[in-house]
């Protein structure tokens, strides 16, 4: 309901009113000679508190003091700092041959005498109009609303006000693609914070004021409001060539902290035109109702693999070099994922920095929260919609570690040790399994096990080689998922997403769908006789590929085939709809994937699932 235009407009009006009121109060206080601010940061888990304020001489003080220290020591230190600041200011005035000291600071000189060194000002802390005793510990003395007095100057103490610890705009901005700032907030919440977007009126046209340089260009741009007062801004074609500025005030719904402004380091670039996912977004304009779970599985192509000579010359020689750059691809990935309005998103080949700096800010702004599991150079990420689910627990494993140490896989390991060459290859692989148990926010009895993986890939003849390795990894995965969904959380349904690097004709797919695989299956010898390892496997799930068996989910110059799946528990879930994949014409517009209109060599699987 909160997405309805009328409600959103009302929220914007309320936020604007709050911001205007805050600004008016600040101006009123300033006009009335109101108190300065003294900001205190005091966190129980840290031994020290910080205190920051501006002295009368204009210098800014940041102090770190033990929370267990008596207040009197801090006040004495403040008095010393104030005295030093006064002395520096006096020396500066004298060097400039300024007029006699007319400030109200304390002085030890008499009438008509030479200027003398100022005395230490009286420094006191008051709470509810009573002086705080100097033997009170810092942790108890510095309360929100207290008043610090330094000489004739008074400061209002703000303890743990909302504050930004990090604020960053993307390095590459394109028209038609959402700009999601990376926010680090302490004692605040993005939902309680205020945002206002500006754009250059004319790029670099205005001359700077004398002595005021711009960090961005030789000239200072003038700014006009965009009218957008939300966390995310999507530039239009009219913004091409312009820089953006974000004015934001941290808040917690009741208090507002100090505002900050941030200007983009780049100008808005033109977008690529129609992308492969634009038509798919027509099916996913709204978030699904509570009875449904829109699920996405997507290998987004790790930057660590896209930015190699092998990738540029062998894997993707047809792709424009700039379209392989991470900053470019991140714009497409963010727009594609946010446009699906998904409830659960499972991603593979996620760089750690991409997760924290790109995916988390973008998806968090659209109501999703995520967890990450590193493999080696990249890993897995699972996001879930916070309005629908909360994270109950995580049960991630590394396949080779679990196989060697977990008693769940004792029988499988006993079979594998009979084939030393195969065992060695299996235990060398770094593949991992991410398992998250989610609980419905509307009905606590509804829980679901979401698994996410990326099975081993040989990079050559994907569907022919290393099939036995993927079979064993899948056996470990299913045994572990069964333990979580049957032993730890009895009878909860399973959604198993991933890039399984296996076509529907392989042993891995046969094993998942049919529940067993015989010891004479050809995949046990997929790497030749030397690594042959014949064994039979069984599992007890009843699984189905929710999106069926598409002609391909991976389309590169030398290969195309279906490698990605969303496997679901048929006993508890059913498929409501499958979002159509891009047409073959769309996929091959630029020969193959990735391309200027598609950020990965894989295609996202998207479907709406329904609780039975």
Put the structure in a nutshell.
The protein is of the alpha+beta class and 612 residues long. It has 14 helices and 30 strands.
Features:
612 residues; alpha+beta; Ubiquitin-like (UB roll); Immunoglobulin-like; Deoxyribonuclease I, Chain A; 3 domains; seven-stranded mixed beta sheet; elongated; disordered N terminus; metal-binding; mitochondrion; Endo/exonu/phosph_ase_sf; mRNA processing
Overall body shape: elongated
The number of distinct helices, counting runs of at least 4 residues, comes to 14
CATH topology-level name of the largest domain: Deoxyribonuclease I, Chain A
Low confidence ranges: 1-5, 24-32, 101-107, 109-114, 205-218
Task: Measure the end-to-end span.
Answer: 25 Å
**How many structural domains does the protein architecture include?**
3
Mean pLDDT: 89
Quote the beta fraction: 25-35%
Strand order of the largest sheet: 3-2-1-7-6-4-5
Query: What percent of the residues sit in helical stretches (DSSP H or I)?
Result: 25-40%
Please give the largest β-sheet: 7 strands, mixed
Instruction: Classify the secondary structure makeup into a structural class.
Output: alpha+beta
Per CATH, the architecture of the largest domain is: 4-Layer Sandwich
How many individual β-strands?
30
Backbone CA Rg: 31 Å
CATH class of the largest domain: Alpha Beta
The CATH superfamily label of the largest domain reads Endonuclease/exonuclease/phosphatase
């Amino acid at each position: 309901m909160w997405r309805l235009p009328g409600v959103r407009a009302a929220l914007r009006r309320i936020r604007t009113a709050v911001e205007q009121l805050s600004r008016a109060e600040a101006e009123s206080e300033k006009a009335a000679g109101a108190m300065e601010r003294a900001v205190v940061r005091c966190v129980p888990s840290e031994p020290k508190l910080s205190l920051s304020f501006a002295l009368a001489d204009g210098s800014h003080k940041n102090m770190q003091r033990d929370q267990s220290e008596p207040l009197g020591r801090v006040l004495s230190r403040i008095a010393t700092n104030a005295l030093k600041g006064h002395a520096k200011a006096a020396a500066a005035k004298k060097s400039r041959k300024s007029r006699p000291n007319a400030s109200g600071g304390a002085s030890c000189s008499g009438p008509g005498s030479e200027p003398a060194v100022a005395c230490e000002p009286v420094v006191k802390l008051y709470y509810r109009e009573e002086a705080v005793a100097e033997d009170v510990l810092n942790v108890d003395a510095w309360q929100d609303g207290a008043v610090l007095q330094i000489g004739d100057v008074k400061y209002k103490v703000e303890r743990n006000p909302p504050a930004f610890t990090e604020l960053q705009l993307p390095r590459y901005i394109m028209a038609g693609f959402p700009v999601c700032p990376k926010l680090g907030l302490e004692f605040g919440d993005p939902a309680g914070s205020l945002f206002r977007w500006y754009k250059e009126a004319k790029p670099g046209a205005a001359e700077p004021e004398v002595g005021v340089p711009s960090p961005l260009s030789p000239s200072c741009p003038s700014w006009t409001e965009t009218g957008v007062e939300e966390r995310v801004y999507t530039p239009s074609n009219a913004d091409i060539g312009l820089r953006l500025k974000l004015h934001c005030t941290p808040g917690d719904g009741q208090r507002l902290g100090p505002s900050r402004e941030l200007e983009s380091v780049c100008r808005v670039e033109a977008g690529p035109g129609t992308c492969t996912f634009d038509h798919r977004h027509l099916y996913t304009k709204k978030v699904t109702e509570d009875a449904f779970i829109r699920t996405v599985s997507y290998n987004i192509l790790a930057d660590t693999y896209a930015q190699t000579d092998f990738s540029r010359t062998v894997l993707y020689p047809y792709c424009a070099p700039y379209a392989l750059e991470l900053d470019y691809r991140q714009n497409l990935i963010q727009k594609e994922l946010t446009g699906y309005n998904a409830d659960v998103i499972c991603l593979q080949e996620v760089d750690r920095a991409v997760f924290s700096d790109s995916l988390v800010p973008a998806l968090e702004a659209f109501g999703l929260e995520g967890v990450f599991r590193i493999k080696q150079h990249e890993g897995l990420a699972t996001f879930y919609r916070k309005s629908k689910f909360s994270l109950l627990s995580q049960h991630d494993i590394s396949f080779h570690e679990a196989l060697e140490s977990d008693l769940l896989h004792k029988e499988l390991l006993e079979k594998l040790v009979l084939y030393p060459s195969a065992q060695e290859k299996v235990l060398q692989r770094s593949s991992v399994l991410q398992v998250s148990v989610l609980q419905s926010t509307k009905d606590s009895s509804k829980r679901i096990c979401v698994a996410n993986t990326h099975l081993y890939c040989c990079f050559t003849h994907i569907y022919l080689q290393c099939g036995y390795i993927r079979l064993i990894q899948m056996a470990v995965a299913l045994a572990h998922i069964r333990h979580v969904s049957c032993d730890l959380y009895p009878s909860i349904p399973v959604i198993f997403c991933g890039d399984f690097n296996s076509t529907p004709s392989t042993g891995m797919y046969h094993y998942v769908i049919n529940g067993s695989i015989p010891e004479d299956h050809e995949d046990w010898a997929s790497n030749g006789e030397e690594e042959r390892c014949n064994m039979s496997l069984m599992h007890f799930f009843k699984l189905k590929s929710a999106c069926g068996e598409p002609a391909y989910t991976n389309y590169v110059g030398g290969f195309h085939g279906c490698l990605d799946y969303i496997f679901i528990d048929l006993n508890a879930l059913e498929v409501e709809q499958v979002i159509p994949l891009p047409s073959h014409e769309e996929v091959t517009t630029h020969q193959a994937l990735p391309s200027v209109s598609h950020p990965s060599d894989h295609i996202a699987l998207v479907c709406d699932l329904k609780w039975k």
